[in-house]
């Protein structure tokens, strides 16, 4: 690790960063894939920035709430998709350390990004992308560019996008703004090193989850527990009897950002749910995918994850 | 600033880069906690902080807030912790490298209430890998402790 210092007061300026649970940060600092000059330890603000409160239509979670504490809370148990995304992520130990704010901002697991001997446009802008045409089995089939095809690996953000969740951001001048989680992550385009809409010093202080809707999160992974999503889908349905009045669908493990599948939502809207409509929506969700020889199977897994999540959300509505 | 480990106070490392794991192993002569992957993937370095299981390889020592318990702190004088005794009883290891991490994680798994069935134990112990695949014996040891506790 290159040298840095740790402080508790103030906000990061260029070259410095927040550290919360450290489960992304310390991992990447050991690899040399990131090298902040100074860490601002959010642990000092844990009491002020953690905890869960509820109104009739929204659950608000402090950004420093750990994944484990959030999953245990009765209000979160009521949001099935959120609960599933939390308890199926990482390991029990990591969930005790990791915070929800840090979770949204976890970095890609692209093995070239993690290996400083390799070029990588995300780590060293302009150096190239060995994943394109290389070992791309885990890379994105949606939302990639000619510069980067790194998968966004997280689960919770995918459910946040399907729910229409928002975050509160506090800027270094103390001003606050709210944005949808859907607008937090940036597609790589020509600037894969710019991953989010946050400016240096911006702090996520809270996450706001809307209540209501029949929901489900289906995560397909290479082993039964403790693995990132090979493909995943979050579905939130509003129904009038057996008919879907509105649907929100998001994909995980398949795209460069938590991926809103609007075309699939249109397929469902106004329809009755059965196997056929569920698979039609799944196919619509993946219709713009750009698979390669080594990752094409994940398109099929994505279709099935969407279909299964739709059927299971409908099951959860009764 | 000091670190409280197993009820005793130890100095903090001066270098902010030092993880809790390296500090304990290299400077404090607490070598019971093992280093497998050093990247949060194997669970060998699991310790408790204020009773919660965490990975000491991803925890910078200077950011520890709370009391640390390691495998060295589980037994009382010469009496093994029930989980240690159960691992012996059930032969829940071969080489023993993952064992301190397994035991710390197992203690938390039971206190969290996540040891209700074999499948639940498997899921909530998945953060601890065992290269020797002693998994069935590990789950049996944990189930026996959970059952003994339930019977009071
Ligand atoms: C082996 C392993 C397996 C994993 N498996 C999964 C999985 O299956 N699913 C999954 O979703 N995740 C998984 N993860 C990722 C894990 O969930 C994240 O590392 C964790 O959630 C990050 O939270 P943290 O508090 O530790 O963040 P940190 O590492 O402290 O920070 C992460 C980033 O966010 C920034 N940051 C943190 N908090 C804030 C804030 N409030 N405002 C602004 N910036 C902030 C930091 O500067 C840093 O850039 C896995 C991780 C590991 C190591
Ligand atoms: S896919 Fe993105 S992160 Fe991976 S090597 Fe290419 S540029 Fe880097
Ligand atoms: S050494 Fe910490 S998880 Fe492997
Ligand atoms: S006993 Fe050898 S690794 Fe578990």
What order do the helices and strands come in, and which of them pair?
The complex is a heterodimer of chains A (318) and B (152).
Chain A: E1 5-7, E2 16-19, H1 25-31, E3 38-41, H2 46-49, E4 52-54, E5 58-62, H3 67-72, H4 74-77, H5 80-87, H6 92-97, H7 100-104, H8 111-114, H9 156-163, E6 166-170, E7 176-180, E8 203-210, E9 214-220, E10 231-240, E11 243-252, E12 259-260, H10 262-268, H11 275-285, H12 297-317
Parallel strand pairs in A: 1-3, 2-3
Antiparallel strand pairs in A: 4-5, 5-8, 6-7, 6-8, 9-10, 10-11, 11-12
Chain B: E1 2-5, E2 8-11, H1 20-27, E3 46-49, E4 52-55, E5 68-69, H2 82-89, H3 99-112, H4 118-124, H5 135-150
Helix pairs in contact in B: 2-5, 3-5
The complex binds flavin-adenine dinucleotide, iron/sulfur cluster and FE2/S2 (inorganic) cluster (FES) (2 copies).
Structure description:
The complex is a heterodimer of chains A (318) and B (152). Chain A is of the alpha+beta class and 318 residues long. Chain A has two domains: 49-210, Uridine Diphospho-n-acetylenolpyruvylglucosamine Reductase, domain 3 (2-Layer Sandwich), CATH 3.30.465.10; 214-315, Enolase-like, domain 1 (2-Layer Sandwich). Chain A has twelve helices and twelve strands. In chain A, the strands form three sheets. Chain A has a five-stranded antiparallel sheet with strand order 4-5-8-6-7, covered by helices on one side. In chain A, strands 9-10-11-12 form a four-stranded antiparallel sheet. Chain A has a three-stranded parallel sheet with strand order 1-3-2, with no helix packed on it. In chain A, strand 6 and strand 7 (176-180) form a beta hairpin. In chain A, helix 5 packs antiparallel against helix 9 (156-163), helix 10 (262-268) runs antiparallel to helix 11 and helix 11 (275-285) packs across helix 12 (297-317). Chain B folds into two domains: 2-71, Ubiquitin-like (UB roll) (Roll); 82-150, [2Fe-2S]-binding domain (DNA polymerase, domain 1), CATH 1.10.150.120. Chain B is 35% helix and 12% strand. In chain B, helix 2 (82-89) crosses helix 5 (135-150) and helix 3 (99-112) runs parallel beside helix 5 (135-150). Chain A binds chain B through residues 1, 3-6, 19, 22-23, 26-27, 30-31, 39, 41, 43, 46, 68, 90-94, 96-97, 224-226, and chain B through 16-17, 19, 38-40, 43, 46, 52-55, 58-60, 62-63, 65, 105, 108-109, 112, 114, 122-128.
């Amino acid at each position: 690790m290159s040298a840095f210092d740790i402080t508790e007061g103030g906000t990061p300026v260029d070259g410095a960063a927040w550290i919360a649970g450290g489960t992304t940060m310390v991992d990447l600092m050991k690899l040399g894939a990131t090298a902040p000059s100074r860490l601002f330890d959010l642990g000092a603000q844990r009491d002020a920035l953690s905890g869960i409160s509820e109104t009739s239509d929204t659950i608000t979670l402090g950004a420093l709430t750990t994944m484990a504490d959030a999953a245990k809370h009765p209000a979160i148990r009521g949001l099935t998709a959120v609960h599933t995304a939390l308890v199926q992520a990482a390991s029990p130990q990591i969930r005790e350390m990791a915070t929800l704010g840090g979770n949204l901002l976890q970095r890609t697991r692209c093995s070239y990004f993690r290996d400083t001997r390799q070029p990588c446009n995300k780590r060293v802008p302009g150096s190239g992308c060995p994943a394109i045409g290389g070992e791309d089995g885990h890379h994105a089939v949606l939302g990639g560019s000619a510069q980067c095809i790194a998968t966004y690996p997280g689960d919770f953000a995918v459910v946040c996008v399907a729910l229409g969740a928002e975050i509160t951001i506090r800027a270094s001048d103390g001003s606050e703004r709210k944005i949808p989680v859907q607008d937090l992550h940036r597609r790589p385009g020509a600037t894969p090193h710019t991953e989010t809409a946050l400016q240096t010093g911006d702090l996520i202080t809270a996450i706001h989850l809307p209540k209501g809707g029949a929901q489900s999160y289906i995560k397909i992974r290479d082993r039964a527990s403790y693995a990132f999503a090979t493909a995943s889908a979050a579905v939130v349905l509003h129904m009038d009897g057996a008919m879907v009045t509105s649907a929100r669908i998001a994909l995980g493990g398949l795209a460069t950002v938590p991926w809103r599948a609007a075309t699939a939502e249109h397929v469902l809207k106004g329809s009755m749910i059965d196997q056929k409509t569920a698979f039609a929506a799944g196919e619509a969700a993946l219709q713009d995918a750009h698979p390669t020889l080594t990752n094409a199977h994940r398109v099929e897994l994505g279709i099935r994850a969407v279909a299964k999540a739709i059927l299971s959300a409908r099951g959860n509505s009764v | 600033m000091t670190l409280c480990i197993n009820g005793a106070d130890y100095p903090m490392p001066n270098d902010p880069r030092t993880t809790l794991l390296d500090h304990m192993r290299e400077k404090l002569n607490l070598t019971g906690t093992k280093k497998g992957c050093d990247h949060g993937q194997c669970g060998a370095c699991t310790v408790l902080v204020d009773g919660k299981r965490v990975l000491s390889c991803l925890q910078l020592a200077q950011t520890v807030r709370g009391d640390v318990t390691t495998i060295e702190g589980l037994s009382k004088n010469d009496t093994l912790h029930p989980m240690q005794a159960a691992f012996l009883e059930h032969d829940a290891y071969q080489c023993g490298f993952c064992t301190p991490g397994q035991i710390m994680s197992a203690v938390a798994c039971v206190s969290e209430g996540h040891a209700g069935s074999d499948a639940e134990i498997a899921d909530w112990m998945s953060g601890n890998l065992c290269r020797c695949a002693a998994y069935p014996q590990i789950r049996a040891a944990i189930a026996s402790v959970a059952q003994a506790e339930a019977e009071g």
